[in-house]
Amino acid sequence: MGSAVLMFALILAAAPPRRIVVAPGGPVPTVTAALRLARPGDTVVVTAGIYREPRLEVRVPVTLLGAGDAVLDGGGAHEVLTIRADDVTVRGLTIRNVGTSFTDDRAGIRIDGARGCVIADNRLLDTFFGIYAERADDCVVSGNVIEGRARRQTTSGNAIHLFYSTGFTVTGNRVSGHRDGIYLEFSHRVSIRDNESHGNVRYGLHFMFSDSCEYRRNVFSSNASGVAVMYSRSVTMVGNRFEDNWGPAAYGLLLKEIKDSRIEGNLLARNTVGLFAESADRLVVERNQFLRNGWAVRIMANATDNSFRWNRFEGNTFDVATNSQGSSPSTFAENYWDGYAGYDLDRDGFGDTPFRPVRLFSVIVEQNEPTLILLRSFFLDLLEAAERVMPVLTPEALVDSRPLMHWRVS
Questions:
Q1: Sign (positive/negative) of CA torsion 131, 206, 170, 144?
Q2: How far apart are the first and last CA of the chain?
Q3: For residue range 118-161, what is the model confidence (pLDDT) as tens digits?
Q4: Top CATH class, 18-224
Q5: Which of 86, 274, 278, 394 is most buried, most CB within 10 Å of its CB?
Q6: 76-80, 172-176, 183-187, 392-396 — which is least confidently predicted?
Q7: C-alpha dihedral over 384, 386, 387, 389, to 10 degrees?
């Protein structure tokens, strides 16, 4: 009996891959039927039509391919597609209508404990969670459009959600209208590149306890709270755009309990706070542009050993603010400040006198925020002028001793 089963398995393994075509009114009219027929290596081609079926489960390594306008509709009642096999590819489908649940994290596409999967070039519309990976590894999520209709954080899920998942590549996706655009928790060695995340009701990107990750060349715009990286180490943030994140608790980039990370070549423009750092240690912040923010940088006294070099500060209401009253735990050197009014007699490109980026008024506001109403007052201008001549209240050690005379990108 055992040898017969083994022989049958060998025959199946040797069989060439097949194309199983799903078409309304055809020999295989449903995706459910096609997945029952599928063997490892097969391609299931879903032709144009709207398919309202019970939750679909993929348990063998196959390619699920949308041809034409193929729509998998969850009807608002359940998850649409769950992948439980390694090396599955899902491409070219429209997946829609996954209703909100307060007991289940329902998703348009879920990767459950699988590795080596590819989720590419799909459209996910009005799904609670878009793509949800749990304890999955080495998968690619690329070129998907994920659009939700979130109104509140409590009734919305995340567009791309990685939980205890490693080695993912998330690239070229466009996500909007969710709680968080991209969310990582306990997920390591993840590369997030060339995505657009906008109009989400919390963060465009949210890291929690996720080490050795990178995100490059992404655009995060008009999200309620910006981007947050928390409780992580060895994170690389290069070439991103953090734009138009306005509100009483909005940031371009919020860093909390993050260590040994690099922030380089990013644009932080038109945010309430460009970069906020609390309990952030040994950060290298270089060649970034802080343009037209409320506060360009707010760095707390418990953020230590951080280096800010070759950055551009222009058009910000406050360039730097801190709650530190003593020596600065971080250093600023060779940055460009549009508020610098010094001179360069030796013509080496650096100012001959130091620049103090912390304004007196930012110190006052840090202690009593309602005083912002005095921002444009003549009395405040007099206090600022006196403080520049004889600093008393601004941090003595927080200075840029070699400010750039002109911004240059090297």
A1: positive
A2: 72
A3: 999 999 999 999 999 999 999 999 999 999 988 888 778 999 99
A4: mainly beta
A5: 274
A6: 392-396
A7: 130
